[in-house]
Amino acid sequence: MSVHPNTQAVRIQTERTNEKEHSTPLFLTSSFCFNDAEEMRAAFAEENDNNIYSRFSNPTVQEFIDKMCALEGAEAGFATASGMSAIFGTFMAFLNSGDHLLSCSSVFGSTHTIITKYFKRWNIEYSYADIRKPETWEALIRSSTKMIYVETPTNPGLDIVDMEWLGQLSKKHNIILVVDNCFATPVLQKPVQYGADLVLHSATKWLDGQGRVLGGIVVGKEKLIRELYLFCRNTGPSLSPFNAWVLSKSLETLDVRIQRHCDNAEALVQALEGHPKLNWIRYPFHPSHPMYAIAQKQMTRGGGLVTFDLKGGVESGKKFMDALKMLSLTSNLGDSRSIASHPASTTHSKLTGPEQLEVGITPGLIRISVGLEYSGDIINDILQALEQC
Ligand SMILES: Cc1ncc(COP(=O)(O)O)c(C=O)c1O
């Protein structure tokens, strides 16, 4: 019987053990046993599907991977210890010395650091493309371009890339297209449908959704995942079975949680509309978003992140953060608890003013990761903090 991906996210489960447990078991083990030497030889020769060592594979980790493949509509996957190890592993598995990466310039800070600071060690070249000028991207492609890398929506600018257009561009030039789907999750968009070859996540964010564990995953074409797997099983960024168990349980409620995050984000946007202390509000499903039409085409809803620009710049930003009574001041996002952050004075403070503006960060930009509290309480806390700016 074929069932909906949301059902698969609930029902995919490691085969029940002799204990007849209802909830999924946790295989917290580093290695696996063999009945005899021949079975062990065959496992190492990949003539059977036996697990060998949890750096290679583990049933609990595989359960999380299988659920994510079902949700993203992907053929195969490999799970990693964090979002950054998913990104770094993907770069290292596919990019050789002399290869060129075309990346959107608005990418997560640590991704930006890998590209700009470390790529030169391995003679990997890159070009940054402006997310707001898609017409300039094709001219940046070289004969050595091996991979196109984007986030959509971006962190923290909430810019959107047209995945249908990008899928066609990458196919035309025979380039691997990688999409960081962390902000939208497969509930809101499925990049594989638009031609992404690999889709990756920081599972630390919405997939866990409760701020407990670090994790990452890459899903996509079986041939590419096989290559990634061979690289990672030797280099060691594998996801811990314990974290995989937590993440697999989280996926049972992913759709329900994301729908409520979107409800609360929409209510917040409505409450902040036209507020005298704000220059603007940004939300992918708000008609004022410059890429609203693209968001409507490729996303089912706008997601749980809302940004706004405070009049009064950096000082107003810090005052707003200090005035919050309930929202958490922490650098994570995608939690059941609402979180506020002020990129200009924290995560992006090392960038110059013009560099901040280039990636969409204004001095008064506040990013809200809208949680699952009663929406009226989230709104009241933000409104009272705005009064004090
Ligand atoms: C879009 C995006 N990608 C990747 C990462 C890195 O993930 P992790 O912190 O799990 O390594 C983050 C973290 O915030 C992120 O926001």
The counted number of beta strands is: 12
- Major beta-sheet overview: 7 strands, mixed
Distance between the termini: 57 Å
- Fold-level CATH name of the largest domain: Aspartate Aminotransferase, domain 2
Q: What is the gyration radius calculated from CA atoms?
A: 22 Å
Assign an overall shape. Answer: globular
The helix/strand series, from N terminus to C terminus, equals HHHEHEHEEHEHEEHHHEHEHEEHEH
In total, how many domains does the architecture comprise? 2
Low-confidence stretches: none
CATH architecture of the largest domain: 3-Layer(aba) Sandwich
The average pLDDT value, as a whole number, equals: 96
Give the count of helical stretches: 14
CATH superfamily of the largest domain: Type I PLP-dependent aspartate aminotransferase-like (Major domain)
Sheet with the most strands: spatial strand order: 1-7-6-5-4-2-3
Determine and state the CATH class of the largest domain: Alpha Beta
Give an overview of the whole structure.
With 389 residues, this protein is an alpha/beta fold. It has two domains: 5-251, Aspartate Aminotransferase, domain 2 (3-Layer(aba) Sandwich), CATH 3.40.640.10; 254-387, Aspartate Aminotransferase, domain 1 (Alpha-Beta Complex). Helices cover 38% and strands 15% of the residues. It contains 14 helices and twelve strands. Strand 4 (145-151), helix 6 and strand 5 (176-180) form a beta-alpha-beta unit. Helix 12 (313-323) packs across helix 14. The N and C termini lie far apart (57 Å). The model has no long low-confidence stretch (mean pLDDT 96). Residues 82-84, 108, 151, 155, 180, 182-183, 202, 204, 214, 216 line the site of pyridoxal-5'-phosphate.
